[in-house]
Amino acid sequence: MRPFIARPEHGVIWITGASSGIGRALALKLAGEGYKVAVTARRHDKLLELQAEASEQPGSIIVLDGDVTNAEDMEHTVAAIEYQHGPLALAVLNAGIYLPARGEDLNHDVFDRSFAVNLHGVINCLVPAVRHMRARGHGQIAIVSSAAGYGGVPAGAAYGATKAALINMAESLNFELDRMGIHIQLVTPGFVDTALTGKNKFSMPGLMSAEDAAKAIAAGLKSPGFEITFPKSFTYRAKLVNFLPYSLYFRVIRRIIDGRRPSQASGHHPNPHPAE
Q1: pTM of the full structure
Q2: In 3D, which of 267, 211, 239, 151 has the Cα closest to residue 30?
Q3: What separation in angstroms does the CA of 63 have from each of 19, 49, 78, 132, 140?
Q4: pLDDT in tens, 101-140
Q5: Domain of life, per the record (predicted)?
Q6: Catalytic residue numbers?
């Protein structure tokens, strides 16, 4: 049976982390294709600006308040979509943060905050979304991870760990959700030009604009495939590196990082990670 693929007539698309970056660009892209898009993020004013920008599009933007780290908030958000705006046809769980975690300055806060948003924030949205979709017998969910989840890189101990967890979670859920008629997909971007990557002071191979990333995701959401990854010239190589024995893997990563490191005089330590 062909996986369920959400169309405008099926109901509402929900995008978390939609106030900037990929989430914002994707909301505009899908509204332009005629979808009704519900958006949540911490910055309410930015969502209102997004709604105003989409006012002339064939579709529409619905602004809903809610913090992904609060499970009760997300229960209320899904209920509001379902009972006020229409059935939840597709959830794009995109909200995420990047906080560097370095061995010389390990602390609980970086890990707690990273896992609260990047992992538990997804789970808080996923649980109510699956419950409603299962009751209808169909639905679509896209979990936004990152190529940083493929393997460890410097400063990525917290961010990469959360993204690796999302990859494993999506793979595992694919078995059960498929039987329920829920099409789950995994989004693994490489480097995308957003506020997160804008702080990086090193070469980012395959860097894409948020708009181009949104186009790639929008196209992938209309396909039956499990993984939506881009740019493939970078993410496929990132996958292949992780097949190496650890002795070679660490050597390759060190060589890549050393080749992109700014001069020591700058005092800056780069954070080589893909991020949404």
Answers
A1: 0.91
A2: 211
A3: 10, 10, 13, 20, 20
A4: 999 999 999 999 999 999 999 999 999 999 999 999 999 9
A5: Bacteria
A6: 159
- Residue 67 near residue 42, CB atoms below 8 Å: yes
- Per-residue pLDDT of 160-178, as tens digits, reads 999 999 999 999 999 999 9
- C-alpha span between 254 and 232 (Å, rounded): 22
Tell me if 38 sits within 8 A of 26, measured CB to CB. no
Instruction: Report in angstroms the alpha-carbon separations of 254 from 230, 249, 250.
Output: 23, 9, 6
Domains, the chain, ordered by start: 8-243 (3.40.50.720)
Distance, CA of 81 to chain centre? 20
3-state helix, strand, coil in the chain (%, to 5): 50, 15, 35
Instruction: Give, for 211, the enclosing helix (H) or strand (E).
Output: helix 210-221
Which pLDDT belongs to residue 243? 94
Amino acid at 3: P
Tokens found for residue 239: 């996958």
Per DSSP, the three-state class of 74 is helix
- CA dist., res. 78 & res. 139, Å (int): 13
Task: Evaluate the CA torsion angle 29, 122, 3, 227 in order and state its sign.
Answer: positive
Residue 16 has pLDDT above 50, yes or no: yes
